[in-house]
Write a structure and sequence with these properties.
alpha+beta, about 15% helix, 11 strands, 2 helices, Toxin-antitoxin system YwqK family antitoxin
């Protein structure tokens, strides 16, 4: 597995907030993570959030800003090995996205922009290439251009 600057369990436990119980999705579109329901005075979560399996191993961690995933989102198998790594902006994949098999071999690599898959490769467990996408579709290119123009206007 390549170095993705994954946090150690100790770093996550020290810096993060353990999310226990039911995840509370709220906000305008119901996609933001809140500390409790908005109607009960809940606030969107900002900071490093994580959950653990019953055996104590890390299930995932992600940075959140105003209730939306912002930064690295990392999932783990129950035995503690990494399942996936994604770079997130405003709750959508924007940047690298990689997945691994339990044995640590690469399963897929992708690059996203505004949640649209630009390039993608997927391999079977023996390393045989199954799928490859080398460029976005015309529709995806059009949407990315629209988002680029929109982002450029308001500086987001």
């Amino acid at each position: 597995m390549l170095d993705y600057n994954l946090l150690s369990i100790e770093e996550v436990l020290l810096e993060g907030i353990e999310f226990e119980g039911e995840v509370c999705f709220s906000g305008k579109y119901g996609q933001e993570v809140f500390d409790k329901p908005i109607e009960d005075g809940g606030h969107p979560i900002s900071g490093l959030l994580y959950e653990r399996y019953k055996n104590g191993n890390m299930a995932y961690y992600s940075y959140y800003k105003n209730g939306l995933s912002e930064g690295n989102y990392v999932e783990f198998y129950e035995d503690g090995k990494a399942v996936s790594f994604q770079q997130m902006i405003k709750g959508v994949v924007h940047g690298k996205s990689n997945c691994w098999y339990k044995d640590g071999n690469i399963k897929s690599v992708a690059e996203y922009k505004y949640g649209f898959k630009l390039i993608y490769k997927e391999w079977d467990a023996n390393g045989l290439l199954l799928t490859e996408k080398t460029e976005p579709s015309d529709f995806e290119k059009e949407m990315i251009d629209k988002y680029d123009a929109w982002v450029g206007q308001d500086g987001r």
